[in-house]
Structure formats: structure tokens, C-alpha cells
Amino acid sequence: MIRKFVLVLLFSFVMPSIMQAQLSLGSVAPEIRLPDSLGKWKPLSEVKSKLILIDFWAAWCYPCVRSMPDLKRLYANYHDKGLEIYAVSLDKDYRNWVATCQRLNLPFIHVNDAYSLDGKACHDYHINDIPNRMLIKDGKIIGAEMSLYDLEKLIQQELK
After folding, report:
1. Residue 104: what are its φ and ψ, rounded to 5°?
2. 116: left (phi over 0), alpha (psi -120 to 50) or beta
3. Which CATH class is domain 2-158?
4. H-helix or E-strand spanning residue 88
5. Closest by Cα among 24, 84, 74, 26 to 50
6. Which residues, 6+ apart, have CB-to-CB distance to 101 below 8 Å?
7. For the chain, what are the domain ranges?
């Protein structure tokens, strides 16, 4: 009886997270249509660039904010060569999100999903935690679940 209970618990908690793993490489990147800080809609499909790095983050997330200088460096080094960063904030606190973007002087595209991890973008991309990044080329995911170092190597390779 206890063995069955343990198996039921295992499948009810572990299996959904396995089934919700990030989209696989080669998958078509789902559309994201979210507002920027001025309320203007910025659909992912309207971003015209060779490579798009989608960054799921939040201003309250220390590891996310700590990685922003590295993202700014990637942007500075590769934007003119064809990289765009599409930062999807999961902040519910609009003022803190905008203030953090301004304080950090973040130069890339920013949109916000106040539904956070329960929002459509996170569901479509199977995002369960942040920071979380995916690299897109020609509408398909070519990089996911990678360190910034490995993402940069892939960006260098793709922008040759």
C-alpha cells in the first residue's frame, strides 16, 4: 500500500515537470505578444534579426539581474552583426521592473507578462524557472538550457 502511494506521489510530482521540459532544439518558436513598458505590443514575430535571444527574467530575481551585465556585453558585441535580445519580464510589480531596466540601462527589447510563470509565454515555452534563455534562428530554437558562455559560442558560430 505504501509502495503504491509513493509511486502515485512520484508520478504526480515528477512526471509533469518531465513532460514540461523546455521545447526541444529545432522546434518552432511560439509567438510571444506582450506589451512593453509603454503598453505598446511588441510581438516576437516582428523582431527582424538573424538571431534572437529570448531571456525570461524578473527584476526580483537576483541571478537574473546579476546576469544582465553579461547580456549587455553580448548585445554590444553582436547586435550590429545580427543579434537581438527579447527580454520577457515576469514581474508583477510594473514600477520595479521599469525602474530596474532604467537603473541597469538595458538596451534591448523589453516586454512584460504580469502573469509570471503562469503566463502564456511561459506555458508555450515550457518555462518553469528563471533565468531561462533560448536562442532562435529562422523561427526555430537552436539553443536552450545553455550557460551564457555556451550561448556566446553558439552566437559566434551562427554569426560568422
Report:
1. -85, -5
2. left
3. alpha beta
4. strand 83-89
5. 84
6. 37, 59, 89, 110
7. 2-158
Per-residue pLDDT reduced to its tens digit, 40-78: 999 999 999 999 999 999 999 999 999 999 999 999 999
Sort 9 into a burial class: Cβ within 10 Å, 0-12 / 13-18 / 19+. exposed
Which residue is it, cell 503562469? 118
Cell 512593453, residue located: 36
Q: Which three cell numbers stand for residue 119?
A: 503566463
CA distances from 130 to 2, 50, 95 (A): 35, 24, 20
> Measuring CA to CA, how many Å separate 11 from each of 1, 4, 16, 117, 128?
16, 11, 8, 22, 18
Tell me what pLDDT residue 18 has: 41
For residue 72, CA distances in Å to 3, 68, 88, 109 come to 51, 6, 15, 12
Q: Which three cell numbers stand for residue 91?
A: 514581474
- Cα dihedral 117→120→123→129 (10° resolution): -20
The single residue listed with the C-alpha cell 509565454 is: 121
- Amino acid 117 reads L
